[in-house]
Design a protein that fits this description.
The complex is a heterodimer of chains A (267) and B (247). Chain A is mainly alpha-helical and 267 residues long. Chain A folds into 2 domains: 142 residues, no CATH class; 83 residues, no CATH class. Chain A has 11 helices and 3 strands; from the N terminus they run αααααβββαααααα. A 3-stranded antiparallel beta sheet of chain A has the order 1-3-2. In chain A, a hairpin with a 2-residue loop joins strand 2 and strand 3. The chains are: A mainly alpha (267), B mainly alpha (247).
C-alpha cells in the first residue's frame, strides 16, 4: 500500500545503524538549507540520489517517480515566487511582463534567481528526506526520536498510529474494492455517497477496534505504558568516517561557492 | 501583446498540467521555507502541541483506554487524507479530515494528532516535510481544527440546521488552512514589487484553483458522513461526546 514504507524494509541499507542514516540525512539537509549556494543544493540532490540508488539499491526509475511526487507544489510555488504582481510596476524592472487590467504581471531576473534557488534547495532537502524514509523503517525513526528525548506520549501515539494505519488502510481498500465492483464510483453522485459510506463505516470500525484493543491489552495487564523491544544495531566506524568526510566536503563546497554558511543562518 | 498572451497561456497551461492529477491539501514542501521562517513557525506551533499533549496526558491518566482510541483516530485521519474525493473533471482531491476530526474529537487532540499525521505524510507520501512541519502543523492542525470547531459550536448555539454547521465547519476549516498557508508563503517570500500583500494575493490566487473546490467537496462529503453517523451510529457519537469533554 505504501511504497516508501515497503522500501524502508527491503533496501540494502536496512541493517545499517539508524542513527548513522539519521545523522547523514539531517546533517546534509542542514548544510543544504543553510547554504545559499545553488551548486551545493545540486550536489546534495546528486549525492542523495547516488546513496539511494547505488547504496540502498532502490531502482532508479522508482526513485525518479518518487521525486516527482512533491513536484506539483514545488513548480507552482516556485513559479509564484518568480512572478511579481503590482499596480505600480514599471516595464524596465522586468525581464518580461504584461498587463492585466490595472495590474502589471512580470518576471524580474533577480526573482528568477531566487526562485531557482528555492527550487534546488527544496529538491535537495526532499532527497535528504527520501534517503531517510526509503532506508529507515518508521519504527527505527521512532526509536531515534525516543533517544532524542521527544515526549514519551507523543512517541507512543506515533507508534500506535503507525501500527493502525495498515489495519485501517486494508479495511478501507477492501471496502473500496467491493464498492467499485458494484459500480459505486460510476457517477459523481454515487461516488460521493459511496465515499461517505466508506468513511463512516471505517470510523465505526475504528471505534470498535479501539475497544477490542483496550480489552486485549487490559487482559495483559496494561496500565498506561507500552514497552517494546528494539533491534540492536552495530555502529560502523567506517560509515561514520565516510559521513564526516562527505559532510565536510559539502560544507567546504557551500562555503567556497556561496560563502554564506553561517551568515545565512544569522540573517 | 502577442508575446504576452503566449506567456499568459503558457502559465495557465503549466498550472493545468501540474494540477489536475490530484489535489492534496496544501502543504509546504520540504526545504521550501527559509531557515528563519521554518524556525519561527516551530516556535509558534510548539505551545499548542504542549497544551494538547498535556490535556491528552491528563485524560489518559483517568482513562488509559483513550490512548488506543487516539492512536486509531490518528491513523483514521491519515487514511482519510489518502482517500480520493471524486470530482467532475476526472481529477481527484483528497480530504483533509480537519473538520471531521475537530468536530468529533475536539481541537486540542487534533493539534497533536494532526502533527503526527503530517509527519507520516512527509515520510510515507513525500507530502510536506520535516523542516516545514512547524508551518504545516500550524495551518492544518492548529488553525484548521480550531476554526472548524469554533464554527461548529457557534452555529449549533445559534441552532442552525445540523447539516449547515457541519458543512461550514469542514469547508471553512479547509479554507482557513489554505489562507494560512498562503499567508505563511507570502510572509516568507514577499513580492519584490508589491510586498507581502501582493505576494499573498499571488499565492492565494494560484492555489485557489485546487483549494476552493476541495473545501466545497470536503464540506459536502463531511455532511454525508455525518448524516450516516447520526442515523446509524448514534451510540458511538454519544460515547464520543464523553471523550470530547475530557480531551
Amino acid at each position: 500500500m505504501f511504497q516508501i514504507d515497503s522500501y524502508a524494509y527491503s533496501n540494502r541499507l536496512y541493517s545499517t545503524h539508524p542513527g548513522e542514516k539519521f545523522a547523514f540525512s539531517a546533517a546534509t539537509m542542514t548544510i543544504c538549507l543553510a547554504s545559499s549556494s545553488m551548486i551545493t543544493a545540486l550536489a546534495v540532490t546528486l549525492l542523495m540520489a547516488g546513496a539511494v540508488v547505488l547504496q540502498a539499491g532502490i531502482p532508479w526509475r522508482q526513485y525518479l517517480k518518487l521525486m516527482t511526487l512533491p513536484a506539483s507544489f514545488l513548480l507552482v510555488g516556485v513559479a509564484t515566487v518568480a512572478v511579481s504582481v503590482s499596480v505600480s510596476g514599471q516595464p524596465e524592472m522586468y525581464l518580461f511582463w504584461f498587463r492585466a487590467g490595472s495590474f502589471s504581471i512580470g518576471v524580474r531576473d533577480q526573482d528568477l534567481a531566487v526562485a531557482a534557488g528555492i527550487f534546488l534547495k527544496s529538491l535537495g532537502a526532499t532527497s535528504c528526506l527520501y534517503f531517510l524514509s526509503l532506508t529507515t523503517p518508521l519504527v527505527e525513526i521512532i526509536s531515534i526520536l525516543r533517544k532524542l528525548k521527544a515526549p514519551t506520549l507523543f512517541i507512543e501515539l506515533m507508534s500506535l498510529v503507525y501500527r493502525f494505519i495498515f489495519v485501517l488502510a486494508e479495511t478501507a481498500e477492501k471496502i473500496y474494492t467491493s464498492q467499485s465492483s458494484r459500480l459505486g464510483y460510476r457517477t459523481l453522485k454515487n461516488g460521493y455517497f459511496s465515499l461517505s459510506q466508506l468513511i463512516s463505516s471505517l470510523f465505526v470500525r475504528t471505534l470498535y477496534r479501539s475497544r477490542e484493543l483496550s480489552k486485549t491489552l487490559s487482559a495483559r495487564c496494561y496500565t498506561g505504558e507500552i514497552r517494546v523491544l528494539e533491534t540492536r544495531h552495530d555502529i560502523s566506524r567506517r560509515n561514520i568516517v565516510v559521513i564526516i568526510v562527505l559532510e565536510l566536503l559539502l560544507a567546504a563546497l557551500a562555503l567556497y561557492d556561496g560563502g554564506g554558511l553561517i551568515g545565512r543562518i544569522n540573517s | 501583446m502577442k508575446k504576452n498572451s503566449i506567456l499568459l497561456s503558457a502559465y495557465f497551461l503549466l498550472i493545468l498540467l501540474v494540477f489536475p492529477q490530484s489535489a492534496y491539501a496544501m502543504h509546504i514542501a520540504e526545504g521550501f521555507l527559509p531557515v528563519k521562517w521554518a524556525g519561527l513557525w516551530v516556535i509558534v506551533t510548539a505551545p499548542f502541541l504542549v497544551v494538547g499533549l498535556r490535556s491528552i496526558r491528563g485524560s489518559i491518566k483517568e482513562k488509559p483506554d483513550l490512548k488506543m482510541l487516539l492512536g486509531l483516530v490518528g491513523a483514521f485521519a491519515f487514511i482519510l487524507s489518502a482517500l480520493k474525493i471524486p470530482s467532475l473533471t476526472g481529477s481527484c482531491s483528497h480530504p483533509t479530515g480537519v473538520g471531521l476530526g475537530a468536530v468529533l474529537f475536539g481541537p486540542a487532540a487534533m493539534s497533536v494528532l494532526g502533527c503526527i499525521v503530517l509527519i507520516f505524510q512527509a515520510l510515507f507520501l513525500a507530502h510536506g516535510g520535516i523542516t516545514t512541519l512547524g508551518a504545516n502543523t500550524f495551518s492544518m492542525a492548529v488553525v484548521g481544527p480550531f476554526v472548524a470547531y469554533g464554527v461548529y459550536k457557534a452555529l449549533q448555539k445559534m441552532s442552525a440546521p445540523h447539516w449547515l454547521s457541519v458543512f461550514l465547519a469542514a469547508a471553512l476549516g479547509d479554507l482557513l488552512t489554505y489562507v494560512t498557508t498562503s499567508l505563511q508563503l507570502a510572509l516568507a517570500f514577499p513580492d519584490a514589487v508589491g510586498g507581502v500583500a501582493a505576494s499573498f494575493v499571488k499565492f492565494a490566487g494560484v492555489f485557489a484553483i485546487t483549494q476552493i473546490p476541495l473545501a466545497i467537496s470536503e464540506g459536502l462529503l463531511t455532511v454525508l458522513v455525518f448524516n450516516l453517523l447520526v442515523s446509524y451510529s448514534r451510540q458511538e457519537l454519544y460515547d464520543l461526546s464523553v471523550l470530547k469533554k475530557e480531551v
